[in-house]
């Protein structure tokens, strides 16, 4: 027995020795394909075996392979796996390329990701690289002109100011139409909590930290977000670290900004002539008209014409506006290994607006860390800290009309800026007084008044994930969106607005805490290589709490004292506390067969504290399907077809953007009676108040031809919005003015088109084009009480667009008299149109056609990129323009063009009426009533951005010990083709009290080391 065991042992040793003799050692080095640096921690495995070896800190490895050879598999997180046949080689060096599928092939959808070829919904994707280093303060502005179905209007040129974003139009009349914004899983509260500076909460994120933005447009894909998704969803993913040595990137840019235009307005002598004509046409004799005109300029009644001719003309626009400046500094570090990846960045941005003393200052710090504790347990932390300081003193001038950006063009040009002693001209209590309707020196307002706002924000997520089974994962995340806003405003007693009350100061503080948790089970598996199944089951809870206080006081001892405790008279104090909660369970189920057919369904059961007890919960389903026709055998022989996919979806979403307590029976303070305070009911309850509901059908075709040189998508959608919320008037006998009810309905339909082409690609030169177009039609289908027209707002009419303009049709000027004319209800000429009968639909404030086009040229290290943005089919009334068109109605300045084209003699053909004192004759053309003369077309094509850059060669970089380097220059809003009389056709609203957009030029340098 012992001999048998000894023989067996010797035999096994001989076999092992023989096997060892048949193996050999292969060595090599793994480097990063872009940087050329060694990559530690790369797994080198002999394919089909368990034999593996990691690379060392220099990227070197050593592994035993059979003498006959074999295949080595090189794998690393964030890089494309590579297989190499060893053959007879003893040294195998490999360069691994980063896996960029996250942007080009992977799409963020709902609470997960999906391969782009399997997506059945309508999702627009914008790479962070497309807007990198642009001088924009908020991420929503980065979407402008870059995605079909997304309309972005820059309502304000104030850095960090409000931006209006609409995804596939407007689906509600009285509730918020703002999309849901999600940053690294955190659902943001983007309500404007500023009282003084019109801030944008999205400005707390550095746009250069963004990796990609996905815009979910269809209801089926958005259904997993339920009650928050009816206005679309914008998902922002920030940058992550990649394994390898730590890479540092420094970026700095600076530049200047200028107004888009200056208005050509009258000089003093032209304005004097206009006033004489206006008084004469009103009925004064020529002699009296001259006397009244002289008085308007502070001259004696008998002042000779030579004295009028000697009056100076001051250019208030160029004094109020300035050359703005922008400065930006950033430093980031990223890297890691197979266990831990990190990205850390810090940034400082300072922008001075084109209006004096209006500026924006922001500091940000971001940290994203992913850590694999074990093969099954991983952790993720995303944290963004920011502090923002904004200043805009003209916004507290008492009236926005008195603010510099609005008033500069309207001030009488004869008013000097300062007196001979250097003090401001026309201050209250001094002589001479400031003349004109706008009777305050806006330069003094800007210097003396204060309006500052400090916002400190925290956006963060902590999550852990556990792999229960190879195909089953659990993820638990906890998020916070916290904002502390503190504002201070001061109206100086040396200005007209606060002179009588000896100064006025206001302070406010606002805290908003948004907490969220998501518990999510995810399943994903393949069967028989042709069946792919994925599923999610989740629970979500969100609490949003907001509280604040404010105080104001006046009567200060002097302008040097500005704190409220220095005032003699407390004016007001106030405070509030409010909030809401949401809870939901949701699930998704998807199936893909052989890469050809895919279907995905989602269901969310949502609850919101904002609604009545009878309708607090809602069910929101969605289903989407796609057919990859290009994977069928009958098309595979057509090599020029790379992708052809049909997709269709249906879904239902909710909208709860209303007041937190609109469904409740509310009480409020009811004053003092008999020395005691009391309370009283303030609003009626509605326990049946419920969600506004959007249902959408979406159809589309995605395509790619000729080796992907031509690709894009064509789609259309139809949506209904039901149970729209209105404040329905109540009889006064009830003691309440109105009650919130679900009574309205609206429809929308639209077409979207995106086309991406590689026009040229030869000898190192490449030219790419991206074009997108959107058409949207909106129609109200139901109002409360079965009414066809809302009495309180005649522009809201069944069968018409929500932006319908219900006003007068301007018929021009009577050649014989110079009087303005309008059309009545029958199309006849009238001089006094009646508000009750003669108004008609004259257009819409919403554009019908929008889009953009980007062209990118690259040649070796050089690149040139420019974006055109356009809109068509929108009319808007601009309050500032309307003032400048009054033509003698009031003591204001006017457009030179209007003055030159005014009616002066019988028989003259023109569209500008005769100058006329007071607006009695000119109704319909002034800013109050409006007509087709003042609601003007705002169609435009704008060169939105241009960037020219050069990436330094490796030879040059090695000499200065850098890994990368880029020099770039860019411009924004450099050219606009339009017929709009105002500063900017893009503004949203009456344009009072805001800063117009500017054109900017910046130069920057980015280096990596």
UniProtKB/TrEMBL annotation:
Belongs to the TonB-dependent receptor family. It comes from the Bacteria. It comes from Rufibacter quisquiliarum. Its main location: membrane. Residues 116-233 form the TonB-dependent receptor plug domain. Residues 1-21 form the signal peptide. Residues 427-868 form the TonB-dependent receptor-like beta-barrel domain. The keyword Transport applies. It is a multi-pass membrane protein. This is TonB-linked SusC/RagA family outer membrane protein. The keyword Iron-sulfur does not apply. It is found in: Cell outer membrane. Gene3D superfamilies: Carboxypeptidase-like, regulatory domain, TonB-dependent receptor, beta-barrel domain, TonB-dependent receptor, plug domain. NCBIfam families: OMP_RagA_SusC, SusC_RagA_signa. GO terms for cellular component: cell outer membrane. Keywords: Cell outer membrane, Membrane, Signal, TonB box, Transmembrane, Transmembrane beta strand, Transport.
